[in-house]
Amino acid sequence: MAERKIFAGPRVRRVRLGLGLTQTAMAEALGISPSYLNLIERNQRPLTVQLLIKLASVYKVDLDLLQGEGNGAATQLREVFADPLLSGEIPGDQEILEVAEAAPNAALGMVKLYRAYREQAARLTDLTDILAKEGHETSVSATHLPIDEVRDRLERRPNFFGRIEDAAEEFVQRLGPGEDLPGALKAWLKAEHGIAARTLPIHAMPNLRRRYDRHSMRLFLSERLSPFDRTRELAAEAAQLALSSEILAELEDLSFTSSEARRIGRFELARYAAHALMMPYGAFLSAAQKARYDIDLLRSRFDVSFEQAANRITTLSRPGAVGLPFFLLELDHAGNVIRRAGAQSYPRAAFGGLCPKLGIHSAFAQPGQILAEAAEMPDGTAYLTVSRTIDGPQAAFGERIRRTALLIGCELALADETVYGPAVESTAARVLAGTACRLCERRGCLARAEPPLTRPLGLDEMVTGLSAFDFQ
């Protein structure tokens, strides 16, 4: 039977040093030469089963200690290097394992530093929100990455770009797509720029949603995409060609500080322009007002997805032709924020959107169903919220569906102008929500997940409240 070989040099060295032994003394006790032990400790020779047994019998060493993965340090290091800030530094697990094996205490020190960094970043973000809520501006920010800069810049301004809207309406009028926008866009790309669009099967393009081949002048779209998303990709490609000067002008106004942020910002503006082509401003505003902002009716009328129509109603802020001031929040199962936007900027300080009581979290239990409710904040302001899940690209058999949830909201005083108003008329049915647990001071909240930053914990051996995070 083949003998199992284990390379565990750093662990053997730790055992020896922990016992205060020299290599010569340990080698003599194990019945091997000091030079051979030196090779074992440098992982140039394996630790055989016979030597494992000898170590266990002579020094009472736990065999699991010699065969484990650095006491779990490797698993915790993977968490550290999965952070977007470090994700490109180590291509595989081998170096992580080597660090965990050779220096487990140093590895755990790195993990502690990383967790302290994450906690500090969360506290700075909370502090910024508190100051913003009280009307104070601060330059202190937890934003580090280009994507964070882009998101923050877009969330804090109205989700409206006038130059793009005007140019998009003019382009659609020239294009004259009738009822076949995808066909008209394909014909325009081919006639004006020599670009042929084609849908490829999953096996030919397994990891991409789109790819533009400059040499053959072909735009490839994945069959994973829904027909609506394929249309958006075609519209985004056309917009970057036909509306390039308008997109560039809006990009300059955003004043991003790095080339990477500019690249991401350009992508977001192209996506915005695609929606403007698919749902021209004037026609969409008129239809939205007549349909009382019924998103399902609007997506059917413009042949778009629920997500696309929901995004579009947050952009109706043209001077002289304004719609209701909706805002939008998108989350995944884990509560990660994918996108925030608003017709008057996203109301982060007043609404937040991270309260676990909100319908956006309940939507995952009822995929595809629309949940309309009224949410009342601690200061008495109330909002109409409409939540629904949306599915990502088509998953193959055995793959997990990418599912996120959208929340569309506006002030409750405007609810009567929407089709969702009658469903939330009862004051008794209001959800008593908060901006986020760390900023909310509601007492006796069954859903509280964290204590508020603004109050000390009220731990009492004699009295226990409904939450594990009771506060004074």
Automatic annotation (TrEMBL):
Coiled-coil portions: none
One Pfam short name: Peptidase_M78
Record CDD domains: HTH_XRE (cd00093)
Name recorded for this polypeptide: HTH cro/C1-type domain-containing protein
Keyword Hydrolase: no
Record PANTHER family: HTH-TYPE TRANSCRIPTIONAL REGULATOR (PTHR46797), HTH-TYPE TRANSCRIPTIONAL REGULATOR SUTR (PTHR46797:SF23)
GO cellular component: cytosol
Residues annotated as domain HTH cro/C1-type: 12-66
SUPFAM superfamilies hit by this protein: lambda repressor-like DNA-binding domains
Keywords: DNA-binding, Transcription, Transcription regulation
